[in-house]
């Protein structure tokens, strides 16, 4: 099979398209023919191996070279073989999944107990693949760390980001009044996702508007708890995807700041959320936003684009054309 392999840290050009043996599933695994995967912003650091401290904490990174040679954390595809003890899936099932790594390839083996579910019926493989990571991040932030409730005022800073586009739709689904913060070119996109109000960060600083919110979800970590504090309601909560002293240190007062590493949540909880994403996509509550599509050969270019920090929603790697 073809796969994007990397054996050393460096610029995005260390990602090489190679032919390697197709894996064989063990008794508890399914073999998935991948149709589409994505390049995520969080995944960029794996290529450079920076910051260095990540090499100590990530099971996929070694101190001198990567331990895992195939990156890619979300995918959609078709089950083409299954181990003898597999009961949840059968050959021909269309699935979407968030493996820990290994999605930059034509095939992957995934344990049937892993983070995979039947693909939302009407979604394309590309749409399904691009939904996993954003939803599995935005949902626990808003629901678990934010305790979102109907009628609350919620601000999403970075509403055009991958996680932001999911967060706007999830917050609306919970019945919140949603304000999305984005640049001028993304106003229509953010409105189309259901945001009640849009603030253009290029024209206005939401922390100085005098308005307050029950939840401020700083998806792109461009603000801080101390800057947002005055924009939080009395018992409001500031959520940030990136750990900062403001989110890690205990604080006096009712206003809270929280960070969670969503990938470290219990696997059973994550699987439940993936299954609920299928239902929400089928019900038309959540849709994925795809900015650009690249073939496997242009994986380095796709990473360079994601690294600009200006993608709208998601960047897909199309493994099988017409997915
Ligand atoms: N904690 C966790 O468990 C977890 C899990 C997954 C990801 N993450 C992290 O979450 C972060 C967000 O990831 P993502 O993939 O959603 O981001 P992304 O899609 O790469 O963000 C790009 C978007 O951010 C917008 N943006 C840039 N500057 C902005 C600003 N000052 N104000 C508002 N919007 C701005 C850009 O719009 P313009 O082009 O208009 O500027 C663009 O649409 C990453 O740092 C990632 O590592 C954390």
Sum this structure up briefly.
The chain is of the alpha/beta class. It is built from nine helices and 15 strands.
Spell out the blueprint of helices and strands:
Elements: E1 2-5, E2 16-19, E3 29-39, H1 44-48, H2 54-57, E4 75-82, E5 94-97, E6 107-111, E7 116-118, H3 125-145, E8 153-157, H4 162-173, E9 177-182, H5 187-192, E10 197-200, E11 213-218, H6 225-228, E12 232-240, H7 245-248, E13 256-258, H8 267-282, E14 290-295, H9 299-307, E15 314-318
Parallel strand pairs: 8-9, 8-11, 9-10, 11-12, 12-13, 14-15
Antiparallel strand pairs: 1-2, 3-4, 3-6, 3-15, 4-5, 5-7
The protein binds NADP nicotinamide-adenine-dinucleotide phosphate.
Residues 40-42, 137, 157-158, 160-164, 181-183, 185-186, 201, 219-222, 241-242, 261-263, 309-312 line the site of NADP nicotinamide-adenine-dinucleotide phosphate (NAP).
How would you explain this protein's 3D organization?
- This protein is of the alpha/beta class and 323 residues long.
- The protein has two domains: 2-131 and 265-318, Quinone Oxidoreductase, Chain A, domain 1 (Alpha-Beta Complex), CATH 3.90.180; 132-263, Rossmann fold.
- Helices cover 25% and strands 26% of the residues.
- It has nine helices and 15 strands.
- It has helices at 44-48, 54-57, 125-145, 162-173, 187-192, 225-228, 245-248, 267-282, 299-307, and strands at 2-5, 16-19, 29-39, 75-82, 94-97, 107-111, 116-118, 153-157, 177-182, 197-200, 213-218, 232-240, 256-258, 290-295, 314-318.
- The strands form three sheets. Strands 3, 4, 5, 6, 7, 14 and 15 form a seven-stranded mixed beta sheet that branches. The protein has a six-stranded parallel beta sheet with strand order 10-9-8-11-12-13.
- Helix 6 (225-228) links the parallel strand 11 and strand 12.
- It is globular, with a radius of gyration of 20 Å.
- The mean pLDDT is 97.
- NADP nicotinamide-adenine-dinucleotide phosphate (NAP) is lined by residues 40-42, 137, 157-158, 160-164, 181-183, 185-186, 201, 219-222, 241-242, 261-263, 309-312.
